[in-house]
Design brief:
The complex is a heterodimer of chains A (about 70) and B (about 450). Chain A has about 70 residues and is mostly helical. The two termini of chain A are about 25 Å apart. Chain B contains 3 helices and 23 strands. The longest helix of chain B has about 35 residues. The chains are: A mainly alpha (about 70), B mainly beta (about 450). The interface between A and B is large, with 59 and 113 residues.
Chain lengths: ~70, ~450
């Protein structure tokens, strides 16, 4: 049931995005988006450290992306 | 004349190649900026072919009366022509301190077997049993190669190895990013596989087998009662194999959409399938008397041998004013262990010229897994799966922090963050007798200090 709910959320979002081809910018309007701090991959080293802490202290992990390695801390 | 023409021709060719090169490095920027799935180096836009980018950090993590960790990280990325990037990362994780073994506190002194199965430790009345010999060093090495595979299609391939004294993890991952809609939309597909092996000192305990344990009115009495049990034999009998393994398959499906000149939205669905030995070989569950609440014995925990975890992660980033950025995310996660969690994370980067200040707030809440029990009642049938690890209990956690940094200036690009993390697990219900007056799962407080330094060669 939960899987179904999660899948439908993804499908709705995917549908919404594909229906929104009008969203976005022209290539010459990327000045702000091109800034380092606007990147979703900004500061991966710190993100990796955070993920490791929460992975070893909580029952949840992942979601943002993946990489790194497993550990015996959980 | 012909020679001169050839020279001019060559010069023109070189000039046009340079222009193309610059265009490519501009082209790659937004695509990479929104991909960000793998551990992509930070300032990709700024790095040029032939350059090395180095990102370093050191984290100090300290829990009140429990675990302390020092974790240095060093990542080097080399940029090649045609948007190809090689990246390698080294992480060292040195842990010391005390860790909860899962047992309940008691009104008596309690003597437990150390996780190694050799030796014992004694805790005072009312104290949550913590094994204070917890010590481990982890070394993790990962590398990745990223390159365009076709127009608007980018691939990244990674390998990683992580080694602890009693643990080895080997993994490989691959991520594909496909840009379309003028690079305003990126579809991401990620696949990862890891194989882990745990070989604890003192071997793998038999699930639900009793561990040598004793109580007493004083530390001496508890320890002499423990010695009478001839603990080493008991522990020996309870041990099974020298190692166990598990495999983890990770799948990620993501969409990143540029909303407008100032905003990005990312939605990921992740599936993580673990299979194999998922039990913590160092954790026990207390069996207590149903009326007095006195712990009578300690048995090794046992978790299911598979786990399917699903998560939906939504993240938005928006530039505000001239220099500020709001970064907001929410993750909904559930698994077939009966656990559900919600995580909200917010960062606001306040740009102040060359400097920035970034407050950070994170709230986390999880429900307990089906097999979590703070303790077992003596005489009742043993469940097939049980764990008293508070990390599987109903729990809330809050992180509050601030980061300050400088993006230019005499010492280059550095930043320092100070964070406070507090976990508040719910107390198990139905505590009998004396247990009702004792705290089984106290809050855990931790302070983190992180220092980052980035530079180029």
């Amino acid at each position: 049931m939960k899987t179904l709910a999660a899948c439908s959320v993804v499908l709705v979002v995917l549908g919404a995005l594909s229906g929104c081809a009008s969203l976005g910018v022209q290539p010459w309007q990327r000045d702000i988006l091109a800034r380092d701090e606007m990147s979703l991959g900004h500061d991966p080293v710190s993100a990796g450290l955070d993920d490791h802490i929460y992975f070893s202290k909580e029952a949840s992990s992942g979601g943002r992306g993946f990489g790194g390695g497993g550990c015996g801390c959980n | 004349m012909q020679l001169k023409q050839r020279r001019i021709g060559a010069r023109l060719r070189r000039a046009s190649e340079r222009v193309l090169e610059q265009r490519r490095s501009l082209d790659v920027d937004p695509a990479l900026a929104i991909a960000g799935v793998m551990a992509a180096p930070a300032a990709m836009a700024a790095a040029q072919p032939g350059e090395w980018e180095l990102n370093s950090a050191i984290l100090f993590y300290s829990e009140a009366d429990r675990v302390s960790a020092i974790e240095p990280v060093f990542q080097a990325s080399r940029y090649f022509n045609n948007d190809r990037i090689f990246s390698a990362k080294l992480v060292v994780d040195a842990l010391t301190g005390a860790s909860a073994n899962g047992a309940v506190p008691s009104q008596d002194f309690q003597t437990f077997t150390r996780p190694s199965g050799r030796g014992s430790f004694t805790v005072a009345p009312g104290e949550v049993p913590l094994d204070d010999t917890f010590r481990d060093t982890r070394l993790a090495l990962s590398s990745s190669w990223a390159q365009p595979l076709a127009q608007n299609l980018r691939g990244s391939f990674g390998l990683n190895i992580s080694k602890e004294y009693d643990y080895l993890s080997l993994g490989a991952s691959s991520v594909l990013d496909w840009d379309f809609n003028k690079k305003n939309t990126t579809l991401t597909l990620g696949l990862g596989y890891a194989q882990d092996q745990v070989s604890p000192e003192g071997d793998i305990p038999t699930a639900l087998a009793p561990q040598s344990y004793a109580r007493g009115n004083s530390a001496d009495e508890a320890e002499s009662n423990y010695a009478l049990q001839d603990g080493s034999d008991d522990a020996e009998r309870a041990m099974r194999d020298s190692s166990e393994s598990k495999s983890v398959i990770d799948l990620l499906l993501g969409v990143t959409q540029v909303i407008d000149r100032r905003s990005l939205l990312q939605v990921n669905y992740s599936l993580s399938l673990s299979d194999g030995y998922l039990t913590d070989p160092f954790k026990v569950v207390s069996v207590v008397d149903g009326s007095s609440g006195t712990p009578l014995s300690q048995i090794y925990e046992n978790r299911p041998d598979s786990r399917a975890k699903h998560s939906v992660f939504v993240r938005g980033k928006r530039a505000i004013g001239d220099d500020d950025v709001l970064d907001l995310s929410y993750r909904y996660l559930f698994d077939d262990w009966g656990m559900t969690s919600h995580t909200v994370d917010m960062r606001y980067r306040w740009g102040l010229g060359e400097w920035f200040l970034q407050p950070h707030l994170r709230y986390y809440m999880q429900s307990a897994t089906d097999f979590y029990q703070g303790f077992l009642i003596d005489g009742q049938p043993l469940p097939a799966e049980v764990s008293a690890d508070y990390r599987l209990a109903d729990m809330q956690a809050l992180t509050a922090g601030i980061e300050v940094g400088r993006t230019a200036g005499p010492w280059g690009n550095w930043r320092v963050a100070l964070e406070y993390y507090r976990q508040t697990p719910d107390e198990p219900g139905g505590k009998p007798g004396a247990l009702a007056g004792l705290e089984l799962t106290p809050a855990v407080d931790a302070v983190m200090v992180r220092f980052n330094y980035d530079f180029k060669l």
